[in-house]
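Reviewer has doubts. Consider these tokens.
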Amino acid sequence: MDVLINVFVALHIIGIAALLGGFLTQMKAMGEGAARFTPAMLHGALTMLVTGMVLVGLNQADGQTVNNLKVGVKLAVLVVVLALVYVKRDEEAVDKGVFGAVGGLTLVNILIATLWT
């Protein structure tokens, strides 16, 4: 079971890397007002959602304790990120505030995952 959990943790990290990497590559364009959400950002957020749900189930099935409040907060933040990226994915240029919010919320999600114990 540990190997399976570790595989999904790796996939979860790949998802967040795609989301954050997409944001970071668009930082210069954001300064020029031409930033857009890339398909990698949408797929990264979806990957995070699916693998996160699987990880919760696997950890509970393995008898490990799961902090449901932490998972709920992370899920709420991710749903907001996913909604923003999904709704604005076809726009040629996304507003700086919306684009910055996605980057900021992604960072918040990373900090919650690593610092909330």
About this structure: Residues 2-25 form the longest helix (24 residues). The chain has a mean pLDDT of 96.
